Predict the structure.
Amino acid sequence: MSIYLYHRGMESHSIPKLLATQVVFGSPRKKCQGSGICKLYTLHAQERTHSPCAMVEGELLLSEFRLALLVPSQQVSAQHFGGTHFIMEEDFVLPTWLNKFEHVAARYIPAGAYSFLRTNKSLYVEFPLLVQQ
């Protein structure tokens, strides 16, 4: 169930939700090799997952049409955040547990290059979410 702000005479806007997650970087079609987001797990689901791919604990800020990812900079590879953009080699369809907006079909992050912000301790990248047709 999503949470909405209503104001008389205005459109409704969803309130972003902050979620702890485990991120596996890479390309889903390349078995998590390459660049992009390969998988997102809840912390609970990750405990039961045995994956040879490196996982990084991070946080997602999720709204209906945007997803922001915040990860510790010292835990990510230069392969993924070495340049000026984070590269998504292919579209990434959000897992079912993240598609909590009842009136929206499955959503995805389109392939492309995304600017990111680097601080002393974190990396922040924001993605648009498109609805699958």
